[in-house]
């Protein structure tokens, strides 16, 4: 065995072959008597071998030590005749899941055959061993809290995709998801479980009972008088739905909760390794004695010392003694049961005294000893099992008020990872990020049951909002709260602060673990830890990015959130340490990812979409820009070859690499990852009742495109490839001229930062939104409680029955609020705290700066991954919507400047031609639409440079036919809301009251018009006549379509309502109808905005399109008015159907309006409620603008009345002066105007309005379909 570690190198083989002549060399200066005393002290004989006094005992030396130790260890070995075996079981002694015949459905099973994941509707599986008498127990580690039924079944039970354990007569199950027990029928039982809980399943086949426990607490007897007798034996079994996962412990590891009830002992189904346990504990005792004994060669005596101060100094006597111990101890430490029960308990005991991990150097010394005296494969397996046991213990530990269990396990993990050689082995082989086991260490689970978590003691006083405004939002003004409310709130806040401090202890330990993994100074024994971590981290990101459609292989979002926050803290600390050492570098506050990472091929972005499209396409189209701007040359032949290879490989891989069993089910299933396997083993068995096969490993990454730079697959990269060296920029190869030539930070930190941004995009944002539901529940219950209390106050004394029911409701709401407010305190401390908010804000600023730097590179901006823009938009949304009201975005440093920077990005890039992806363009448009709904962010848009504002408005006014227009129109409407006729509402009249959770929706914000942006719009439309004409024509065209569709659907709904038979209107039809209505209203508002701001577009007759636009506007207005004021009261029916009202008024030219044949004065009279008495029923209530005093001011009503009077007078004068017209002289198209235009060359005639409108969309003649080359004025000859 080769020398390992420091000090004296001693192998097991060397000391066992030592001869008498070698003995003085081995024992050094220790004399024979002292050595004998020392060895007898370390290895005392038991009482079976006579008196142990020094007078009678035999001299002991190293030559006899082997036999002596062998004799001591064999004393307590159990007899081999098996008489001590407990009866009552049938099956293999090693109990596992029956993956050969004992399952139904589709399942993934781990390598150790103890972890299982459901992969079909309802899959079932049982164990290999059954029990027919006695008392037995097994544990189930709950990895996901979904639908599962856990318990016992007999061999006769037959399950299918609908029926599982508990659904047949001889099977019994507990379901913590629905909180029920099952045996054909079902009743309420137990408590709800959560991920991280442990369920103990106990069966007493002497008394015929089945009991379940949750985290060591009995849930009571679930079933009694179960079937027993000859031929009846019960197997552990489970049924679970898709993607749910658990792990079983039948006794292969120490039970977390061994049960002894009333002197009744339940035994694990699998016997513990009793003989090995006794031997391991005895050897550990010998080792402790060695560590606590000091040999004083001067005084020739043995002295006791503190075991914690022991150091590996290379003393021959001590080392040879330890080597004898390790000869027996090392093989035992390869077994998971012994590692968990013996070694982990011993190491945890070392740290029990408290203090920092640095105050306990013994663990470092012991690890040195392990590497010195154990074979490589032994120490590797020992460390692996030790780390897996710690991960499992941390993950499935119950939450107690001081988080003692979690802190305990994290401290030991930190101590182990401080040992450099052990850390690098674990990073390379165990804590690997292809199956990212270590993410477990960075998660702090949220307690589902606050009482068991001790939150009642930690937060004895609860509080929730009790005052709400008209919109249902919490009132933030604390001046109105009573003294009692203030006292409760402050007591609650103090409790929350106590909880937060305890959680911060755990978070600090988690950051320490990550800092150890990110250490880049430990290069003495090979590659630094950071670069091992980085390569594994990239593979972890790849697995989560490439398998988003398969939830069984993804790291759960709740784990990803915690991991991201700890990683940000660790990265920023290293970043700022580097800044202090390098004066030219930037601080983490100014962090960004340089643009060259996105196109130089040094960082693999898998197949994630770029802003400009696919990477292969960009390398073809932008190869010249890469060469001139970044000095990166791509061989065109290689690009073409790579593209063809990708096509061929995709076609061949499906046929050649797909296993037959999976092919029958529609394609190979990706290998599930670590978390689906609660045993933390690699799940690679796929079980199906149709086919049983091993999983084919997922196809490896395709090698990067061959560019004329050094580029390697992730797993082959070294420190030099990442950080660079002389003449090599590493990850920053290909710096564009626009990028400043200054150091940023260590390049490895840049790649980790890039990965953090990707993590947020993958699942963190989704989880942040999901956890807000607890806050919404608190709000909802608080409103319900306040409403109930008000009803109690109003309840008449003569109705005690109602009062009793109200008081019951009050009690239920109060209990629920007590529970939710404590749970919310935990969530606010772990997810929505001020520190977490600052992390997300820092990430937002990183993305903004990254986008700005990439934008400066011109065409190379297309290489930027889409997720940077997504994270910028989503992180802003999270800060605004998810972290309030506990934390306000206004308090963030540089908040207004950040808003302005983000506004500039949205304004510039929502119409950026370099961005081609439809989804990202829609996201940008929606983000801008949301941005202009809130006063603060709208002011930020107004603060961006004027040139960018004008460009944004120009893009918004582009013709609607050339692009998706609904969001654009919505933006213009928001800029106008608050300025139009009666346009002061936050929601349309007749709609139901806003729900509290909807109060923050952009569409329900109070009006905040932008006069500045309106002015830009007016200037653009006024100065650019062609753009004004094309914009308004597109608006009118869309409005014609939207309003026609709306009216058509309303008529269908009306007809259905009038049928005598009972009928139901299709919900989808109602939604489409409502959408068309919303579009019509918003388009009308944009028309109103345009007419108000730029009336000269319609009234300046020097504009060639003015007359046509005015006529089209008049036609449209008349169509709207006539439709909604029809004689059959269609508009009233719309109101009665609870559809929003339709109101629009535009300034127009009286003559054009009156000349339109559709114009009717009674339409305007109808809006004012002025209807003929004969048509009005006694009880019928007509629509009237006068009824909407909250929205329409008296001044606006007066204007409508004045307009009606003016039009009435004008119509009378027009009727008096209009000469009768012959029918032959009327336009044959509209029959409303006289013929005034003749077409060339066909000489057909019509009015100017009809032909001008027709020529906008078609150049063919109405009548003969000839191409019209010109239109001339036509006047009727005088003699005709």
UniProtKB/TrEMBL annotation:
Component of the KPC complex composed of RNF123/KPC1 and UBAC1/KPC2. Interacts with UBAC1 and CDKN1B via its N-terminal domain. Interacts with RIGI (via N-terminus) and IFIH1 (via N-terminus). Pathway: Protein modification; protein ubiquitination. Residues 716-726 have a biased composition (Basic and acidic residues). InterPro entries: B30.2/SPRY, B30.2/SPRY_sf, ConA-like_dom_sf, RNF123/RKP/RSPRY1, SPRY_dom, TPR_RNF123/RKP, Znf_RING, Znf_RING/FYVE/PHD. Residues 75-255 form the B30.2/SPRY domain. It is found in: Cytoplasm. GO terms for biological process: protein ubiquitination; proteolysis involved in protein catabolic process. PANTHER family: E3 UBIQUITIN-PROTEIN LIGASE RNF123 (PTHR13363:SF5), RING FINGER AND SRY DOMAIN-CONTAINING (PTHR13363). This is E3 ubiquitin-protein ligase RNF123. Its EC number is 2.3.2.27. GO terms for molecular function: ubiquitin protein ligase activity; zinc ion binding.
């Amino acid at each position: 065995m080769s020398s390992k570690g420091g000090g004296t190198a001693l192998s097991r083989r060397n000391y066992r072959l030592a001869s008498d002549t070698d003995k003085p060399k081995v024992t050094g200066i220790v004399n024979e008597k002292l050595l004998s005393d020392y060895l007898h002290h370390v290895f005392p004989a038991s009482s079976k071998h006579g008196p142990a006094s020094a007078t009678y005992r035999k001299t002991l030396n190293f030559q006899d030590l082997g036999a002596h130790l062998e004799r001591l260890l064999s004393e307590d070995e159990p007899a081999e005749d098996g008489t001590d075996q407990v009866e009552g079981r049938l099956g293999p002694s090693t109990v596992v899941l029956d993956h050969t015949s004992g399952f139904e459905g589709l399942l993934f099973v781990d390598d150790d055959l103890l972890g299982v994941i459901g992969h079909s509707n309802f899959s079932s599986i049982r164990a290999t061993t059954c029990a027919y008498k006695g008392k037995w127990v097994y544990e189930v580690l709950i990895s996901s809290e979904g639908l599962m039924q856990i318990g016992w079944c007999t061999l006769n039970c037959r399950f299918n995709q609908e029926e599982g354990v508990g659904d047949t007569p001889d099977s019994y199950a507990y379901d913590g998801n629905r909180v029920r027990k099952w045996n054909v029928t079902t009743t309420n039982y137990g408590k709800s479980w959560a991920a991280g809980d442990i369920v103990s399943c106990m069966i007493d086949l002497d008394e015929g009972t089945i009991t379940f426990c949750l985290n060591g607490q009995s849930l009571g007897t679930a079933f009694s008088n179960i079937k027993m007798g000859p031929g009846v034996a019960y197997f552990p079994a489970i049924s679970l739905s898709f993607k749910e996962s658990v792990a079983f412990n039948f006794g292969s590891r120490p039970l977390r909760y061994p049960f002894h009830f009333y002197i009744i002992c339940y035994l694990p189904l699998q016997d513990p390794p009793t003989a090995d346990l006794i031997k391991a504990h005895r050897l550990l005792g010998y080792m402790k004695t060695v560590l606590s004994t000091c040999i004083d060669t001067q005084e020739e005596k043995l002295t006791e010392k503190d075991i914690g101060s022991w150091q590996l100094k290379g003393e021959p006597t001590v080392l040879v003694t330890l080597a004898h111990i390790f000869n027996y101890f090392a093989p035992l430490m390869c077994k998971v049961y012994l590692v968990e029960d013996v070694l982990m308990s011993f190491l945890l005991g070392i740290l029990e005294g408290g203090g920092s991990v640095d105050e306990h150097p013994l663990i470092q010394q012991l690890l040195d000893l392990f590497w010195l005296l154990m074979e490589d494969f032994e120490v590797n397996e020992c460390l692996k099992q030790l780390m897996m046991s710690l991960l499992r213990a941390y993950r499935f530990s119950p939450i107690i008020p001081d988080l003692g269990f979690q802190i305990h396990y994290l401290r030991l993990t930190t101590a182990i990872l401080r040992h450099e050689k052990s850390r690098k082995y674990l990073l390379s082989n165990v804590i690997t990020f292809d199956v990212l086991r270590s993410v477990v260490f960075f998660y702090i689970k949220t307690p589902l049951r606050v009482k068991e978590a001790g939150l009642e003691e930690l937060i004895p006083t609860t509080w929730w909002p009790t005052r709400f405004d008209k919109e249902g939002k919490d009132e933030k003004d604390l001046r109105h709260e009573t003294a009692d409310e203030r006292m409760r709130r402050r007591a609650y806040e103090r409790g929350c602060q106590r909880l937060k401090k305890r959680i911060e202890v755990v978070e600090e330990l988690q950051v320490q673990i990550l800092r150890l993994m990110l250490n880049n100074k430990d290069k003495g024994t090979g590659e630094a830890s950071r670069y091992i971590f980085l390569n594994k981290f990239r593979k972890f990101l790849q697995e989560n990015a490439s398998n988003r459609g398969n939830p069984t292989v993804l790291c759960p979002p709740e784990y990803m959130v915690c991991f991201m926050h700890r990683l940000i803290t660790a990265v920023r600390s290293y970043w700022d340490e580097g800044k202090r050492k390098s004066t030219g570098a930037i601080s983490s506050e100014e962090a960004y990812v340089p643009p060259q990472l996105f196109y130089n091929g040094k960082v693999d972005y898998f197949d994630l979409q770029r802003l400009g499209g696919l990477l292969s396409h960009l390398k073809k189209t932008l190869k010249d820009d890469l060469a001139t701007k970044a000095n990166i040359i791509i061989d065109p032949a290689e690009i073409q070859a790579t593209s063809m290879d990708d096509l061929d490989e995709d076609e061949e891989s499906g046929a050649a690499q797909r296993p037959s069993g999976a092919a029958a089910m529609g394609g190979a299933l990706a290998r599930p990852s670590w978390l689906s396997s609660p045993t933390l083993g690699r799940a690679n068995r796929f079980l199906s009742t149709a086919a049983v096969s091993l999983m084919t490993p997922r196809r490896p990454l395709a090698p990067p495109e061959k560019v004329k730079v050094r580029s390697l697959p992730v797993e082959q990269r070294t420190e030099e490839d990442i950080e660079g060296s002389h003449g090599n920029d590493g990850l920053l190869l290909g710096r564009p001229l626009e990028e400043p030539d200054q150091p940023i930070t260590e390049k490895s930190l840049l790649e980790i930062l890039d990965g953090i941004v990707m993590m947020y995009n993958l699942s963190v944002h989704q989880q942040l939104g999901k956890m807000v539901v607890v806050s919404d529940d608190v709000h909802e219950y608080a409103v319900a409680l306040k409403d109930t209390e008000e009803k109690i106050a109003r309840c008449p004394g003569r109705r005690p029955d109602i009062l009793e029911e109200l008081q019951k409701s009050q009690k239920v709401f109060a209990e629920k609020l007590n529970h939710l407010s404590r749970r919310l305190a935990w969530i606010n401390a772990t997810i929505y705290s001020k520190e977490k908010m600052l992390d997300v804000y820092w990430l937002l600023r990183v993305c903004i700066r990254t986008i700005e730097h990439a934008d400066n590179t011109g065409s190379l901006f297309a290489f930027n991954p889409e997720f940077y823009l997504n994270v910028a938009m989503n992180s802003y949304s999270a800060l605004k919507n998810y972290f309030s009201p506990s934390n306000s975005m206004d308090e963030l440093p540089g908040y207004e400047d950040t808003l302005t920077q983000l506004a500039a990005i949205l304004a510039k890039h929502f119409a950026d031609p370099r961005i081609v992806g439809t989804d990202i363009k829609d996201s940008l448009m929606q983000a801008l639409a949301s941005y202009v709904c809130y006063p603060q962010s709208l002011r930020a848009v107004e603060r961006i440079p004027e040139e960018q504002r004008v460009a944004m408005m120009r893009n918004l006014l582009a013709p609607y036919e050339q692009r998706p227009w609904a969001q654009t129109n919505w933006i213009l409407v928001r800029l106008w809301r608050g300025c139009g006729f009666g346009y002061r509402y936050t929601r349309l009249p007749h709609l139901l009251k806003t729900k509290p959770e909807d109060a923050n929706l952009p569409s329900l914000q109070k009006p905040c018009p932008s006069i500045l942006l309106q002015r830009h719009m007016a200037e653009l439309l006024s100065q650019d006549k062609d753009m004004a004409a094309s914009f308004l024509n597109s608006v009118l065209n869309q409005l014609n379509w939207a309003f026609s569709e709306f009216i058509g659907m309303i008529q269908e709904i009306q007809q259905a309502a009038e049928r005598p038979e009972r009928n139901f209107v299709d919900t989808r039809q109602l939604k489409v109808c409502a959408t068309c209505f919303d579009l019509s209203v918003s388009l009308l508002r944009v028309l109103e905005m345009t007419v108000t701001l730029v009336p000269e577009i319609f009234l300046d007759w020097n504009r060639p399109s003015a007359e046509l636009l005015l006529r089209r506007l008049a036609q449209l207005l008349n169509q709207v008015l006539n439709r909604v004021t029809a004689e059959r009261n269609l508009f009233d029916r719309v109101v009665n159907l609870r559809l929003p009202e339709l109101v629009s008024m535009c300034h127009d030219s009286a003559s054009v309006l009156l000349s339109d044949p559709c114009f009717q004065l009674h339409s305007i009279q109808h809006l004012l409620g002025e209807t003929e008495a004969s048509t009005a029923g006694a009880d019928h209530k007509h629509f009237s603008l006068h009824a909407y005093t909250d929205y329409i001011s008296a001044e606006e009503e007066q204007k409508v009345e004045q307009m009606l009077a003016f039009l009435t007078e004008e119509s009378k004068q027009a009727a008096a002066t209009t000469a009768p017209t012959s029918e032959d002289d009327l336009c044959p198209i509209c029959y409303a105007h006289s013929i005034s235009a003749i077409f060339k060359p066909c000489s057909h005639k019509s009015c100017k309005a009809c032909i001008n409108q027709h020529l906008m969309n078609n150049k063919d003649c109405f009548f003969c379909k000839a191409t019209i080359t010109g239109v001339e004025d036509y006047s009727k000859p005088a003699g005709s």
